[in-house]
Amino acid sequence: MTIALARLGIRVPDVSYRAYRVWQRNRDVYLRLWKAEAIWPLAEPLITLLALGLGLGELITETELPGNQRYIEFIAPGILAVFPMWAAAGECGWGSFFRMENQRTYHAIIATPVSIEDVITGEVLWGATRGLISSVYIVAVSAAFGLLDSPMVLLAFPIAYVSGFMFASISLSYTSVARSISSLNYFFALFITPQFWLGGVFFPLERLPEELQAAAWFVPATHVVDIYRGLVQGQLNLSHLGDLAWIGVVAAVFYYLALISMRRRLIQ
Amino acid sequence: MAEIIRARNLVKRFDGFTAVDGIDLSVRRGECFGLLGPNGAGKTTTVRMISCVSPVTEGELVVDGTDVRREPRRIKSILGVVPQEDNLDPDLSVRQNLAVYARYFDMPRELANQRIDESLALFQLVEKQNEPIWALSTGLKRRLTIVRGLINQPKILVLDEPTTGLDPQARHLVWQKLRYLREQGVTMLLCTHYMEEAAHLCDRLVIMHQGRILVEGSPAELVEQYAGREVAEVHASGPQRERILAEMASQPGLTVEEVEDILYIYARTHDGRAQMADLILDSERVAYRQANLEDVFLRLTGRGLVE
Q1: End-to-end C-alpha distance for chain B, whole angstroms
Q2: Which residues of A touch B90 (CB under 8 A)?
Q3: Are residue B36 and residue B144 in the same domain, yes or no?
Q4: CA-CA to B110 of 20 to 30 Å: which in A126, A255, B13, B36?
């Protein structure tokens, strides 16, 4: 099978359990630095809920939002989607680039029985973990605001991991072709930031012109936001399975791209 | 079988540029084998192919009985790699760096801890074990990188320019540790452009230039064969220089190499010194010394700057 694929020019990625060793390495570094690392994922959602949820939210009347929600209730599930997106994408963007080019960590690791595909897989799993950690902080902050009452909110954690895997994979596949750390700015400015503001977190997507609504459907964050809205309101339905499938497909495609593109970059 | 690395007609090409151009190598178990050459000679590329991090373009390359293309993970598990660049984990402590690295080899934690204790003691790093990497000097980082390369008790230790950038004390300490390892029977593959380093450490070596192997032998053999016994470095210019060069032609035992304003005169015979003295009596400045690997290297690869 492997040989047959090789004849077609398709390489079966050499992924093994050793990806976990890479994840462990990242975890060990994180645990040494976690006090410094904890402030962003805690401060950002807190400030956003205060400024937009309470500050701006008082200016918005409830009848304009679906289900007569308060504005802070409306944005809470969205925030649960997009800050972990930043955490996962940032980890596999700036974080991975720095490890690869400045610290030469990948080069050190692939001199051992760990393959480059193990390294990439470990990095993506770790990026997803950063998304998960961020979502834990946000659930805690939102709960403190009294915004979460459905027990279904516990499902937020596996969803955070899966969507974190997707954002980490997308980010790492961009990193694999980035020439310098500043060229990552394009990715974050043109891909991540628009999802943050236009992914249906801060206003219902129906407010956008129809063409933009159609475009928004292709944006990964939109589907994550959709699922969280269902979760927080305690109303999940079949369309959410569709969202999840969409996330799974995008995650698989970009994970595979990251694998082959990183091998091309690093194994010469 | 005594042979642990074998290369036959090994080639590495990058987009039309040939970095390694059909070399043959044979490294024996337990020896320190040197790859010498100027920057860009193909030493690092060769070592990267042996370490299974760079695919072979053509030819045969067998490490410990296994083709590098077949089982890279197995080969990597018996190698210890000490790279030219510093790629320690800067945020982790000395000890954590070693523990994390041991995990890549699936080493059980207790065994890893025991080996870490032993090697920190051997390399005089015990007091530094809880320091972060950024607090270490260049020399200490090098020593730690070597300790890291030894953590899996490799059959072959691959060292790429292990003392580049070190001050003389730190360099001699590293050499002392490497000689100790050689006595312990660790096979070593050493890339260097320091001739003194190769002379200190290598049992056998090859000199590489532009992707090819020029010569192979022990340091003493190569010096004897290519540089002779004694060298006179003569600072001479103008008519004096002309006269020396003219008289050289009639002296069978001597050869000369011209570099900028210096003449290097090589003597092959025992009475070389007297022979040379006759020639250069009235020269401004002359220094006699024993021929060394550097002479071999420079005679073979040319004195011009190789970039």
Answers
A1: 39
A2: 103
A3: yes
A4: A126
B241 within a domain of the structure (yes/no) = yes
**Dist. CA A241–CA A226, nearest whole Å:** 10
- Domain encompassing residue A242: 16-266
**CA of B157: which chain A residue's CA is closest?**
A111
Domain count, chain B: 2
CB contact under 8 A, B83 and A103: no
Contact at CB, A112 and B83, closer than 8 angstroms: no
Q: Which domain holds residue B212?
A: 3-223
Q: Give the CA dihedral B142, B148, B151, B152, nearest 10 degrees.
A: -110
B219 and B243 co-located in one domain? no
pLDDT at A245 exceeding the cut of 60: yes
Q: Let me know how many helices (H) and strands (E) chain B has, helices first.
A: 11, 14
Chain A residue with CA closest to B53: the answer is A267
Q: What is the mean pLDDT of chain A?
A: 91
Residue B262 in domain: yes
Q: Measured between CA atoms, how close is A34 to chain B, in angstroms?
A: 12
pLDDT at residue B305 in the model: 44
Could you give the ipTM of this predicted complex?
0.90
Domain membership flag for residue B305: no
Beta carbons of B53 and A110 less than 8 Å apart: yes
Residue A5 is assigned to a structural domain of this protein: no
| Burial class of B105 by CB neighbour count within 10 A (0 to 12, 13 to 18, 19+) | buried
Which CATH number do you get for residue B244?
A: 3.30.70.920
Q: What is the DSSP string of A127-175?
A: HHHHHHHHHHHHHHHHHHTT----GGGGGHHHHHHHHHHHHHHHHHHHH
**Interval B118-146: pLDDT, tens:** 999 999 999 999 999 999 999 999 999 99
In terms of domains, do B274 and B189 share one?
no
In a domain, B100, yes or no: yes
Asked if B171 and B261 sit in the same domain, the reply is: no
CA distance A112 to chain B (A): 5
Count the domains in chain A. Answer: 1
Which residue among A108, A113, A267 sits closest to B54, beta carbon to beta carbon?
A267
How close, in Å, is residue B10 to chain A by CA atoms? Answer: 16
Distance CA A246, CA A250 (A): 6
Tens digit of pLDDT for each residue in B242-258? 888 887 777 777 888 88
Residue with tokens 């709960």: A143
Same domain, B106 and B195: yes
Q: Write out chain A residues lying below 8 Å of B101, CB-based.
A: 108, 112
% of chain A beyond a pLDDT of 90: 63
Q: How far is A46 from chain B (nearest CA, A)?
A: 29
Between B19 and B230, residue with greater pLDDT: B19
What is the count of residue pairs from A and B with beta carbons less than 8 Å apart?
A: 67
Question: Does A3 reside within a domain?
Answer: no
pLDDT at B96 over 50: yes
